[in-house]
Design brief:
Order of helices and strands: HH
Low-confidence stretches: none
Shape: elongated
Mean pLDDT: 75
Oligomer: single chain
Radius of gyration: 26 Å
Strand content: under 5%
Number of domains: 1
Number of helices: 2
Largest sheet: none
Helix content: over 70%
Distance between the termini: 69 Å
């Protein structure tokens, strides 16, 4: 049983290596990364616009708590 499992893993790894070697110099999905980056920036901007006052209040409360000026 362990020999069969080892042979299956070896065949699978050789197959994967062969597929990757045939790809050449593929650098990845650039348009996908650009889309993820733009969407992340859009989400951060939208949250910032909606919650700006609360974020400032939260930040100031946290600083006051560290410094010791909490009410």
């Amino acid at each position: 049983m362990p020999v069969q499992l080892l042979r299956m893993l070896s065949d699978a790894s050789l197959s994967l290596y062969g597929r990757l070697a045939l790809r050449g110099r593929d650098r990845g999905d650039v348009p996908g990364w650009v889309l993820v980056t733009i969407m992340s920036a859009g989400l951060v901007t939208a949250l910032w616009l909606v919650a700006d006052d609360k974020l400032k209040e939260l930040f100031n409360d946290a600083l006051d708590g560290v410094v010791g000026n909490a009410p």
